[in-house]
Design a protein that fits this description.
321 residues; alpha/beta; 7 strands; globular; disordered C terminus; SAM-dependent_MTases_sf; Nicotianamine synthase
Length: 321
């Protein structure tokens, strides 16, 4: 009898074959249908551990993540262009097919952030904001109405598209800034942000992602928060996975795996303060407070919310209020 895991892998590989044979990944009926099918296949909770799969499937997964990233970029550009043609683009965000997911993800991330941030951040950075910076827009509009958002993207056309969306809004045009930079070349500015968000598809393989995390760990202010998106179970065929032990120089505060249609897991970590010299403190007291970020087993990830249900309730409450 074929087990569920094998059936899942077979289905994902079959969809991958169809996607990789497409001439273009720009939005059209066939592209939309295949990616919808892929997402619906990977969304149900699954105990599958993608890092333990054989090399052939690992290679397919790596390529699939890149294809998903490319398709997502085309989709966002397409809708950003349409939205940019409206007089008030922000009044029409619901035309984007995954807008409701961003509302839920924004609320989830704000809820988690509120549990670990003692004050409302004045300055937030979003790395990998793209042509349709929905996370920044949702957070700035619904949850952090006095915070300024600095959006970083390497693509100048993505930034010009994104700027067009907020330029007509009297509030967001004053609080949202766009920087065309490779984040690996940004150092001093990173010290200014109390919270840094890292988009799921910035660093699409393990090596690239870890290089960026290490760079942030080197240049962020001690005590600042890093909010990352990861993936869990079969959803790891769609997005890269960030393990707690990848976060060298950070204390992992919480890991949350949604079980609803929000695809990304959310990881929040705090940049560690410089180690205190051993001679200046009682050794036993120091060991008791030390974080051991290189040992995965030392970090107990926990879910601050129940299976995504609380998120839905909060969203409903917000709409009612």
């Amino acid at each position: 009898m074929v087990c569920e895991e094998e059936l899942l892998i077979e289905k994902v590989c079959s969809i991958y074959e169809q996607i990789s044979s497409l001439e273009s990944l720009k939005p059209c009926k066939n592209v939309d249908m295949l990616f919808t099918k892929l997402v619906l296949t990977c969304i149900p909770p699954s105990p599958i551990e993608v890092t333990k799969l054989n090399k052939t499937v690992q290679d397919i997964r790596s390529h699939l993540i890149k294809l998903c990233g490319e398709a997502e970029g085309h989709l966002e550009s397409h809708y950003s262009t349409i939205l940019g043609s409206y007089q008030n683009p922000l009044h029409h965000l619901n035309i984007f097919p995954y807008y409701s997911n961003y509302l839920k993800l924004g609320l989830l991330e704000f809820t988690i952030l509120s549990q670990h941030c003692t004050h409302v951040p004045t300055k937030v950075a979003f790395v990998g904001s793209g042509p349709l910076p929905l996370t920044s827009i949702v957070l700035a509009s619904n949850h952090l109405p006095s915070t300024t958002f600095h959006n970083y993207d390497m693509d100048p056309s993505a930034n010009s598209n994104a700027m067009r969306l907020v330029s007509s809004d009297p509030d967001l045009s004053k609080r949202m800034f766009f920087h065309t930079n490779d984040i690996l070349e940004v150092s001093t500015a990173l010290k200014e942000y109390e919270v840094v968000y890292l988009a799921a598809l910035v660093g699409m393989d393990k090596e690239g992602k870890n290089r960026i995390i290490d760079h942030l760990g080197k240049h962020m202010n001690p005590g600042a928060l890093l909010m990352l998106r990861s993936a869990h179970g079969a959803r790891a065929f769609l997005y890269p996975v960030v393990e707690p032990c990848d976060l060298r120089g950070f204390e992992v505060l919480s890991v949350f795996h949604p079980s609803d249609e929000v695809v990304n897991s959310v990881v929040i970590a705090r940049k560690l303060y410089h180690p205190v010299p051993m001679h200046s403190l009682d050794q036993q007291a120091l060991v008791g407070s030390m974080i051991l970020p290189n040992k995965c087993s030392e970090i107990q990830a926990f879910n601050p919310l129940n299976h995504g249900n609380m998120i839905e309730e909060l969203a409903v409450e917000e709409q009612l209020s």
